[in-house]
Amino acid sequence: MTKKSRSITCQYVPELTRPNAIAPGDIFELKHYWQSYLHFTKYNDDIRQRIFSATQSILQKVSNLFVDIYKLKLHSKPKFSLDNHQLFKKQLAQSNWTTWIGVHVRRSDFVALQFSSSDEYLFFAIEYYIKRYPNAHFIVASDDKRYCRKLFHNRANFFLTPESFSMGEDLIALSLCEHSIVTGGTFGWWTAYLTNGHVIHDKVYPSGCERREYYYPPWFMIPGNVRAQKYSNYTL
Fold it and tell me: Which residue windows are coiled coil (predicted)?
């Protein structure tokens, strides 16, 4: 058995998609970041609908976050079926009370690297969704919750994931939303990809690979020229 490896930043490796690209019995390791959507575009539905799924215990824990928000805002406790991840996501989307927007804010290492997004970017993206969805409510996950609490302290429709949540539970919580705002990095990229709604992504992040390979075509990018969603009356 032969083991081969290749180091990339996040570039697309087209030869991996060719028939017999990896010989029988060989092991091929692609190191670093799987962040080019071109690796996955053929398998989008399989990844989102079948491969990516929360365990029952995590789904129960994350569902409590949403139920607690409904109790706080509506003074009622909705009943959700937690048979599986996608069913719960569908039930949240069918609620007439709110449109859930997931927000990921990465700061811990990005501030020193000057990759962190500005407050202006975040508020610009937030205002876009509020104008588009008057019932928008935001689930925020971050490695700097103190910063986010201060930034969003006067907004009643913002809810941070609990300190007790693991990174995996944050990922599940954001993926259950309908649309996304992300700053930069691998974690934010995957939350947006798995959520599969409208996405606003900050271009300040130097992804390290070709922009056309990194940014999924339907995504909005700001600041700068932004592609409006097809058939949308809203532009940025």
Answer: none
Buried (b) or exposed (e) across 70-81, using 16+ Cβ within 10 A?
A: beeeeeeeeebe
Taking only the tens place, the pLDDT of each residue in 168-193 is: 999 999 999 999 999 988 899 999 99
CA–CA separation, 215 vs 67, rounded Å? 33
**Partner residues linked to 210 by β-bridges:** none
Instruction: Tell me the backbone φ, ψ of residue 79, rounded to 5 degrees.
Output: -105, 120
CATH 3.20.20.140 for the 54-222 domain, yes or no: no
On the question of a cis peptide bond just before residue 206, with omega within 30 degrees of 0, the verdict is: no
Query: Which secondary-structure segment (H or E) carries 202?
Result: strand 199-202
Model-level pTM? 0.86
By the 8 A CB rule, do 182 and 204 touch?
Answer: no
The residue extents of the domains of the chain are 3-46, 54-222
